[in-house]
Amino acid sequence: MNARVPRGAEASCVRPPAAHPCGSCPYRRDVPAGVWAVEEYEKLPPYDAETTHQPTGVFLCHQQNGRACAGWVAVHDMGHSLALRLAVARGSVDDLAAFIDYSTTTPLWGSGREAAEHGIAGVKEPDESACRVIAKLGRTPRVADAMERYERSGS
């Protein structure tokens, strides 16, 4: 399973994580359940696996093109990340220390499984706070473009 790696992304530089996970990061404890599609949440638990069984793609931020997801970097042990190792081998990570030494004070779920379980629980009936986050995301250019492509595809 290759999680959230846009075509050609690995060929370019993967930017280090932001100082703090974004306000809609699926790894954040304070982000309401149901903000993202089930398919997005399902990408998180495989990174909990042993190194050889992890996805091969760096999990990128949903809001910042080419930037590693800060929540993903903080929750998963980057010293044992297959995706990060492969990105380094491909020459697409310039600052390995920014991943290995990353920390944040933002409260996060303890694993991809925990984050996914929380998020999926609210997908069918997102509460008002989730709807506000979803509406805000719809106004960001990256998410609006993705929504437009999805609607055009007839899915």
Structure report:
The protein has helices spanning 38-41, 70-75, 82-90, 96-100, 112-120, 128-138, 141-153. It has seven helices and no strands. Residues 1-11 have low confidence and may be disordered. The longest helix is centred in the C-terminal third of the chain and has 13 residues, at 141-153. By secondary structure, it is mostly helical. It has one domain. The protein is 37% helix and 0% strand.
Short description, anyone?
The chain has one domain.
Number of helices: 7
> What is the domain total for the residues?
1
Beta strand %: under 5%
| Strand segment tally | 0
Stretches with pLDDT under 50, minimum 5 residues: 1-11
General shape? globular
Assembly type of the chains comes to single chain
Using only C-alpha atoms, the radius of gyration works out to 15 Å
The separation of the N and C termini measures 21 Å
